[in-house]
Design goal:
alpha+beta; 17 helices; 45% helix; 558 residues
Length: 558
Amino acid sequence: MSGIFDANNQDSALFIGGTRVSGQQVRSQNVMAAQSIANVIKTSLGPVGLDKMLVDDVGDVTISNDGATILQLLEVEHPAGKILVKLAQQQDTEVGDGTTSVVVIAAELLRRANELVKSHIHPATVIAGYRLACKEANRFIADQMAQKVDTLGAEALVNVAMTTISSKILGTYGTFFAEMAVDALKAVRSQDGRGKARYAVGAVNILKVKGSSARESSWFTGHALYRPFTGAAMRRSVTSPCIAVIDFDITKTRMKLGVHIVIDNPDSLEAIRKREADISAERVRMLLDAGVTAVFSTRGIDDVYVKMFAEAGAVTVTRVPKDDARRIARGCGASVLTTLATLDGDEAVDVSALGSAELVEQVRLSDDDVVVVRGAREQHAATVILRGANDYMLDEMERSFHDSLCAVKRVLESGSVVPGGGAVEVALDIYLESFATTLGSREQLAIVEFANALLSIPKQLAVNAAKDSIELVAKLRAYHAAAQNAAPDAPRSHLKHYGLDLHEGKLRDNVKAGVLEPAMSKIKMLKSATEAAINILRIDDMIKLVPEQQAEDPHAHM
């Protein structure tokens, strides 16, 4: 068993089957894993970042520059690397943007922390310094850098959406998709129990239709389903429909598996067959008698029952995806009916489980028919129709548009934005370096490294744009140092809004230029990156057990 551990750990008290890596060696391995992941996606950062093509084991191709998407498709095996992958996914879920930045910062924080530990600074000291720096950074963003979106005019929301999609495939279409994202999200405005405005991104449905130019994309209010009405004889539209969303088949009822019926009269067999058909017909009559004029089913409806609905003037849609069924039920104030059975053992339609809307209609879209539910009772909805040349383009357009929706939602709900283009990171670098000098403990070393790690974002932005990163970042630091040393009403105080102009290779006032990001995005990014770096830095021992070998069966035959 002496060979089960690494050479440096053979005298360990542990006596198990596996490998053990501890101390500086495990930290170096974790840093290397984090750096490797950051190196994969850092070239996709910024408005001129490059795309990645990923091919999975079955040959499916994904082309994207979204950090969370890239990392999700990578098969990361290293435990520290998996933490960064989950970090990007968390940022994508909570904010929608900044997924690449958060991984780049976390990897840089980890690298610099490792250098401090090599210089005989205890990890606990580094962790305490990082936590203090993160707390001060978030306070500085909220107090000094954040601006209320109300003071910037109506175009501020469009600028936020434009900043988010500028680095993605939709950025080449100007403000076309940014305005669409803002309008679609405003259309689904609702209020929570406290009367505060809420904007549900899930209420914006995105349909992808191949063909035509991306500029022919459009949006409208209402739920849309990529499904036609079931019967050709049905009406094309129903005004003020009573809507039932069901999750059971309306087909000819058959006996359950294993049920046997013994008969001695052929007439009885015919009666059984007739009764099997009548059971579902009675369910259809129950729905129609309850006033239902539109049925959305997640399963199938036989033609004979479709004919009954059509003759009664009702419309049906079958094979509705369950997510869409739940969305329609929630919007129309209905409940998904999984059965018509009551507690008494009978069958009846619960009228309270039915919903209503202003209109259900079938419209022609490209070569397909689409059913649209307009004017839902409980929750307004919007549908965005994305047009593109192929599936790869449409998938990336959907990811980009979803990110812009998330960014606009955060700004609408929080009401504050910060300048983009590296302005926040450089301002924090100057502030934290100054703050570190006020401390008389070892934590100041960690705070200085934290500040310098934030510069990895503007440096990488400049490198990706093929600009001189050293000169641009040095000039930007000088601007922000002058802004922080000036009086609040001095002309130089406006220099805090300056960031990088990556297309021209110079500095500019990014608030006036409209390069804006949600303040929440930056705060969440710093918190998440710091926590991830701390979690990995706390690891000083990794024990990997060898799987137990199954004993061979002597009776097994090859």
